[in-house]
Design a protein that fits this description.
single chain; seven-stranded antiparallel beta sheet; five-stranded antiparallel beta sheet; 8 helices; globular
Length: about 290
């Protein structure tokens, strides 16, 4: 899922796992290089790749299995995050995937190892991948993990594939662990980001150049009590976004997030407790001092 540089001479979008495997057997024989494209949201990550052909997962868009009682969902790699959210919402469940990219595909999110703002409470995306199926570069179909919430058998291919950027093969299906939605939730505006330390396990604590917010969920009384540390701005989660695309990230120990933010004079979204600070800039004069620090 690295950045796709112009130069591909062919484009493929197989409509089944079998067709994907057959395609890669042919490409392996020909020696052609490939780049895989999901929703295209994370193509800017990594070094540019000049490939002979591009392979899209858009044809793999089936929902394979949803077991609400077991809190599991299995989908093909081309299914979007927005589609997954719509599917599980009536059951009051959530996959806790990236919140501001509904058109991103689950295959791309897993391959790029991208996590959402709720990582502070629920952990990274890799913690929700129970099973993954990949098509290798020589056309083999390999499955690792199991469609159960607790599983310790076999080699942990799901964690290995998460964030692998296609190095192990094309992710063609994923089984996700789901979370039940709480009774109530809220977005709390903080006068000082340090006030979040008084909350019990907030879902997220975010800061931008415009202020700081804590995101809380649970029983209604518990959520209402969050007003003791700030102003309840919404009875839902409202997430910050950048007006302009194209961002970089600083990743630092969580204890250094406040110091990182103090060094910035451009729009940013900082995840306290996680150690990720997204920067809305591609200016080397901004990025190089941050990198050097």
């Amino acid at each position: 899922m690295s950045q796709f540089a112009p130069g591909a001479v062919a484009h493929h979008a197989p409509g089944s796992v079998e067709a994907m495997a057959e395609l890669y057997r042919e490409l392996d024989t020909s020696g052609a290089t490939t780049v895989v494209i999901g929703g295209g949201n994370h193509l800017g990550i990594g070094n540019p790749v000049l490939a002979d052909t591009s392979v899209a997962t858009s044809g793999l868009d089936a929902v394979i299995d949803h077991q609400p009682d077991d809190l599991t969902l299995t989908v093909e790699a081309g299914v979007t995050i927005g589609t997954i959210d719509e599917l599980v919402r009536p059951h009051r469940q959530t996959p806790a995937l990236p919140e501001t990219e509904p058109d991103a595909t689950i295959g791309g999110v897993v391959a790029a190892g991208v996590s959402g703002f709720r990582r502070n409470r629920f952990g990274p995306t890799r913690d929700r991948v129970l099973e993954v199926t990949v098509v290798t570069g020589d056309g083999r179909v390999v499955t690792g993990g199991a469609r159960v919430v607790k599983n310790v058998s076999g080699y942990d291919l799901p964690r290995l594939a998460t964030g692998s950027f296609g190095a192990l093969g094309v992710i063609v299906s994923v089984c996700l662990k789901l979370w039940p939605e709480p009774e109530s939730r809220a977005t709390v505006r903080l006068d000082d980001v340090a006030d979040a330390d008084r909350l019990h396990r907030p879902v997220a604590v975010l800061e931008t150049e415009e202020g700081a917010w804590a995101y809380v969920q649970g029983p209604a009384a518990e959520v209402a009590s969050a007003s003791s540390v700030g102003t309840i701005q919404s009875d839902d989660f409202t997430w910050p976004t950048f007006d302009e695309p194209g961002t970089a990230e600083m990743r630092v120990p969580p204890v250094l997030v406040r110091e990182a933010v103090a060094r910035l004079d451009v729009p940013f979204i900082a995840q306290h407790g996680v150690g990720v600070v997204a920067i809305a800039s591609e200016d080397p004069d901004v990025l190089q001092p941050a990198r050097s620090w």
